[in-house]
Amino acid sequence: MPEPESRLKRRPATLLRTFASFSPLLRLLVLTQLAFNIGFFAVLPFLAEHLGTAIGMAGWLVGLVLGLRTFSQQGLFVVGGALADRYGVRPVVLAGCVLRIAGFGWLGYARTTGTVVAAVLLIGFAAALFSPAVESEVARQAVCREEAGDGPRTHVLALFTVAGQAGAFLGPFLGALLLAVDFRAVCLTGAGVFVLVLAGHAWLLPQRVPGRARIRSRGGLRRLARHRGFLSLCCAYGAYLLAYNQLYQLLPAEVERAAGSQTPLAWLFALSSLLVVTAQLPVTRWAADRLDLRRSMTTGLLLISAGFAVVAAARPAGWTGTVGLLPVAGYVVLLTLGQMLVAPAARAWVPDLAEDGRLGLYTGALSSVSGLIVLIGSAATGSLLDTTLPPAVPWLLLATITATATALLPHRPTAGAGAKPRS
Which UniProt keywords apply (predicted)? Predict the structure, then answer.
């Protein structure tokens, strides 16, 4: 006997069921995010070690190169988004793939500081092209599905997050296997992944995406700079990204102190990835039924703040060994749960704040503005590690910043996670 319609609507979302309900274009874009991150994270985790040992760069120069990669990527997202609005998704994505292939291939053969810097800048700029184009189109498709009554937009964006996290989880394993050959093999394999992505998009991505108009008028950036609601969202999202960046800044130092080595760090990263892959959709479904976008981000930021507070409270005790790792494990879990609420909600909020036809620009600006906040905030946080202040201070400061960021969220009502968005 077939299930009643009401029961069908209450059936919990699963990865496969949600993915199968997507249009062919949306499925392609989600798989794109998975492939992007597999190729990228097959190389990135091993770059610093390669630069320091094989190339012989000093530590400060390695840090500078990594910072330049971040800047050329996050800082230029606004450029990629504007180009996607102007020329469409397809040419920008294809150009980004070509540049990423060239960048990885170049990096594999680079042996001088100048060639390494050039290759890294090319790799970063490639992502600044294709990522905003893909993310903005996913957000637009998510809103269209919501308007058609096919479920909250956050479900689409949550699955997009899961795909990215799965790629970030699988990529390092692929890179580690290839590192047994050499770093060049890692880079060339990363380039090979993007060759496949390029071929798939050249074949499957339509010349013109239905419903997406190209904007030829100027002035969008000036209006964006005066959009207080959107800039407030960027600042709150920047506080979240600054907190997330502590997985690579505060967390390794605390793990080293508690365990005497970096070995548990890999397990903590795996825990975070596993939580996102298994729990993102249930968490998003729970939030869509109970919270609008502002409350979802507020709850997520407060969970992240609580994670920092746990370590700050435990740090004065100076615990080591397994007991010493419990607070940071709690931090990772709370940070990841907060991420599951904040990231899809922030992306879902952008279409409600963006100017008509400039979703790519606003999607890119969200990453660029928040990336600048992370750059400044990370430098300040790093300086605290070199002072004689109590070791709990950086953790307490991050807890305060993340909690305070909830006050920055726009107050003007916008479409909620399950509500029909404005036109």
Answer: Cell membrane, Membrane, Transmembrane, Transmembrane helix, Transport
